Amino acid sequence: MNIFAVLDQAAARFGDRGAVFLGERQLHTWAELRDRVLRLATSLKSLGDRGTRVAVASENRPEIVELMFAIWAAECVFVPINYKLHPREMADILADSGAAQVFASAKIADDLAATTDVPVETIGGQAYSGRFGSEPADPPTTDPGALAWLFYTSGTTGKSKGAMLSHRNLMAMTVAHLADFDDPDEHCSLIHGAPMSHGSGLYIPPYVLRGARQVVPESTAFEPDEFLDLCGHHPGSSAFLAPTMVQRLIQTGRPRPENLKTVVYGGGPMYVDSLKKSLAAYGPIFVQLYGQGEAPMTITGLRRADHVGADDATLGSVGYPRSGVEVAVLNDNGTQAAVGEIGEIVCRGDVVMSGYWNNPTATAATLKDGWLHTGDMGSFDARGYLTLRDRSKDVVISGGSNIYPREVEEALLEHPDVVEAGVVGAPDADWGEVVVAFVVGEVSPADLDAHLLERIARFKRPKRYEFIDALPKNSYGKVLKRELRERLSPQS
């Protein structure tokens, strides 16, 4: 089954109901959306054969919904790109994926076109609008194992890797969400506060299947007051939000809109104290997920009921394994760890990717003996709750965005006055974590900021620099990140 089928079913069941909204304004019904998608799919087929990669780089826009399903209806592969990346970083993803076309928002189209040979088309522009003059394509009949989504993530090297997600993977994710977390219907809404290129976008299929309207804020971003206003206007509102976004909602001091029924939080650490404050303010509407691009949104979860009257150990956990997913913790010997014993978290099931695009070495290191090795460390308690203990890959998760220390370190080391650099994450009440760089060399923070702006995305820059005489290392010359974290001053 091609994941386009969820839209096909929604159009058949709920054709005249509102499907896509910009703010409070309805743009398309389900029947209209299906027609637009199939017309757009016809034009996309001219880009190449089945399996052609088509990229989308944009802030949240309603067109992302139609582009996503049109790419699938054309039997092409959806390649969403974080629009906050540096144009050079976007160009690297386009080159790696071999994309035939990239649809970009007007905000970034010109800068992106200057850095890549891949054709760039502006979303909503004249050429884009002309694509809907095509005749509607026939609904696709794709092998469920065919590639549907290249989800670009990064490893410890900081180099982008495309997790290959099939139609089967996306359907397994869809079914697990409906079974475990939320049960929307045609009277419900999904409010896209988080980026549709990643977390919020992954939740489009389950809500489309049930006929829940797709709502994009007019700001195209997350503004707490606007988000709460939209939740108050649209019925049965749900959303995926990073923990920092949840905190910003609570900090408004506004009561929970009656229509806001589910907030799924994930993508970064939610500290127990913050979660308690959120529960006190909004009640038991929260659901936690633990997943990664390689097993999209679907490894373990903490349901609404698990939050009610829960102790700190439960609130600090990431819950139970999800439906259709087997999760284990392996010790250093590769055998299942005992209760309470810390080891690497692994999982398997229909939701797990088939590998990394054009990267057999990384695939072999991550998919071993039928298990996805997450690189995260954790332990199960006697009740079956999983708790994350450390991120062995040293990823810093700030404001819901993954920042990879090696990438920042390499950029810092390109500065002629930087001798050594070590990057770690420090806990932060607002962002979850912030980037702190330990630098050896005679250079100012202002010079480093200017240097990094030419090389990496703004949000990846360190919030603070610590200047030291030498990085702590073990006998093999490996930098001891643990000692760097211990050196962090109290304001971190």
TrEMBL record:
The family database entries (PROSITE patterns) matched by this protein are listed as:
AMP_BINDING
Domain AMP-dependent synthetase/ligase: from-to ranges:
8-357
Annotated Gene3D superfamilies? 3.30.300.30, N-terminal domain of ligase-like
**Residue ranges of the AMP-binding enzyme C-terminal domain?**
407-478
Pfam families given in the database record: AMP-binding, AMP-binding_C
Q: Which domain of life is it from?
A: Bacteria
Which is one GO molecular function term here? Answer: ligase activity, forming carbon-sulfur bonds
The record's annotation in InterPro entries points to: AMP-bd_C, AMP-bd_C_sf, AMP-binding_CS, AMP-dep_synth/lig_dom, ANL_N_sf, ATP-dep_AMP-bd_enzyme
Q: What is this protein called?
A: AMP-dependent synthetase
Q: What species does this protein belong to? A: Mycobacterium syngnathidarum
